[in-house]
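Structure ticket #2291
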Amino acid sequence: MLAGNVLPVQLPVLVFLGGVVGFAIGAATRVLAARLHPETAVPAGWCEYPAVVLWSATAACAHLIPSWWLPPVLLLVTLAVPLTAIDLRHRRLPDFLTLPAIPLALLLLTYAAIAGPGLTLLRDAVIGSLAFAGFHALAHYLSPSALGFGDVKLSLSLGAMLGAAGPWALLLAPGIAAIITLTLYPGWGRSIPHGPGLLAATYALVLPAYL
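Resolution: structure written out below.
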């Protein structure tokens, strides 16, 4: 943690740099996704400006987050914006983002376990991934129109992060995600994108897990 007399000076710089990095990553992911998969294209600004907010908020907390926990958080921040934008625009969570997120999340959580509290964190991440994905797979099976299979694939990586954050995070995430999703209902009718709710709930629970 930064010393108390240094933090007030450095914090605005960290927030500014976080916003700059966020804008660059938001723009890069939007352009790359549109070029590789034109069916996932979103308008300019849909990734850039939310990424500025999310990266700035994360940078503001970075001095409180253990160094071993920061990589999984940054992976979540990187993926959250393009996935949310694409789901809101096209009502889909593309495989080219959700599938690589699974091994990447496990890799970074393995590093976190070795550098941090130990391999129990990795065990909890694997259990969380399977439990969270199993829950969403059951929901998809019972009501495919209410929960798409893309949400199930996304829940594998998010569940790993939530499991590593703690059992309380794993238990709270579905409820928080459902509340966020229901707030979108008036504007979306029966086809409600659930990915934004899942991502927002995971970020809200994972970021402060080891503060």
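Closing remark: Residues 192 and 205 are 22 Å apart (CA to CA).
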